[in-house]
């Protein structure tokens, strides 16, 4: 940690990855618990490494300084390592600033989140500049992002086998040339589409429903896409292939522009369906059409960091739902996910000469947005649907 980096941190406000404290208190067990709580909250929050700067008044950012004799890196590390599971990697640095000493506790980016406070069994996260408990869906999402949980293979005990489109499953296996006219339970279980409740009775998995589900408004109402054009709103709840079919067709109809690169729009929708956070049951994908742009927003921020640099740079970005992607490549009869799983280069190329494609990571709202430009003078404002409807 050097002075320039410290100045950059001090110029920012407190947030998910930055906290200011006037002093370090470790004299009581309560003080030590509070430190561990703050460290795990920063470690569990999205983004890169985080920092706690000691010797700075948190509200005014007035430089107070610290007494170096009160800071023992080994003691701090021991307190954190012995009270967190898995242990959070940290480092202590001292930097002279404005004639005073400041201590910077760096919390390194961890691939082993979520980190738990051993003494009370709780998981914490930062919400803005405050520390809060991790909610159940957030905890499950972090577990999935780090490969500790496969959400798609969770069995839906409350849903019967009639919720699956068996004809689509039959065609899937026929295409692989590994089944007859009627798929058997062992084969469907092997692929993760169904699971045994433990009594010999089978039920669909969440992944099975997302791929082949019927009556999705009943079984998975958050698997939906909303299309918004001015005051006109349409919504469809369906399995993933069905959503991609519907959204692609409706956008073509609503825009009515034969020269627009709709293949790139379909690619962006496919990426949103693959990368969205399905653990967030309160939201779906939203597509907003305007004269200037098409905005596609899906629940689930890019978890490679706060910025989308890595997503932009890499033709093979990290996938939130690898199980789902691997099966969509095989399930989709139109082979769209096979073509569209290669990153974002195709989308950017398609809009050369039209405008700049924007990728926006909305970390605080746990969302990701793709903004596709439209040619000036588009007809979006001219084409008005006859009525407002909500399609299911």
From TrEMBL:
Ranges where the Schlafen AlbA-2 domain occurs: 14-132
Top-level lineage group: Bacteria
InterPro entries documented for this protein: RecG_C_sf (IPR038475), Schlafen_AlbA_2_dom (IPR007421), Schlafen_AlbA_2_dom_sf (IPR038461)
Descriptive protein name: Predicted transcriptional regulator, contains HTH domain
Organism: Thermoclostridium caenicola
Lineage: Bacteria, Bacillati, Bacillota, Clostridia, Eubacteriales
């Amino acid at each position: 940690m050097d002075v320039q980096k410290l100045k950059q941190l001090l110029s920012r406000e407190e947030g998910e990855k930055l906290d200011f404290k006037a002093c370090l208190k470790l004299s009581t067990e309560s003080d030590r618990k509070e430190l561990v709580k703050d460290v795990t909250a920063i470690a569990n929050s999205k983004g890169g490494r985080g920092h706690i700067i000691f010797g700075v008044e948190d509200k005014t950012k007035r430089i107070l300084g610290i007494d170096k004799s009160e800071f023992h890196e080994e003691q701090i590390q021991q307190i954190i390592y012995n009270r967190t599971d898995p242990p959070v990697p940290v480092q202590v640095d001292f930097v002279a600033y404005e004639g005073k000493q400041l201590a910077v506790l760096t919390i390194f980016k961890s691939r082993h989140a979520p980190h738990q406070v051993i003494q009370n069994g709780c998981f914490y996260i930062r919400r803005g500049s405050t520390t809060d408990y991790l909610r159940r869906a957030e905890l499950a999402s972090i577990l999935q992002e780090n490969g500790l949980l496969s959400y798609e293979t969770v069995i839906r005990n409350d849903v019967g086998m009639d919720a699956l489109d068996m004809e689509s499953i039959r065609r899937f296996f026929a295409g692989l040339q590994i089944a007859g006219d009627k798929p058997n339970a062992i084969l469907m279980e092997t692929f993760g589409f169904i699971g045994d409740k433990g009594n010999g009775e089978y039920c669909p998995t969440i992944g099975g429903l997302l791929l082949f589900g019927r009556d999705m408004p009943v079984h998975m109402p958050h698997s939906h896409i909303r299309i918004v054009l001015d005051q006109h709103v349409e919504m469809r709840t369906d399995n993933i292939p069905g959503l991609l079919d519907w959204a692609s067709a409706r956008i073509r109809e609503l825009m009515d522009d034969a020269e627009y690169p709709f293949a790139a729009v379909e690619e962006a929708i496919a990426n949103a369906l693959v990368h969205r956070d399905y653990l967030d049951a309160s939201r779906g994908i939203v597509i907003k059409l305007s004269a200037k742009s098409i905005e596609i927003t899906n629940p689930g921020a890019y978890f490679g960091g706060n910025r989308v640099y890595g997503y932009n740079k890499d033709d093979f970005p990290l996938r939130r739902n690898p199980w789902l992607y691997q099966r969509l490549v095989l399930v989709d009869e139109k082979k769209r996910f096979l073509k569209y799983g290669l990153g974002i280069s195709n989308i950017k190329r398609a809009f050369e000469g039209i405008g700049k494609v924007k990728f926006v990571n909305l970390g605080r709202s746990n969302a990701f947005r793709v903004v596709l430009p439209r040619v000036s003078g588009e007809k979006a404002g001219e084409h008005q649907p006859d009525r407002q409807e909500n399609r299911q």
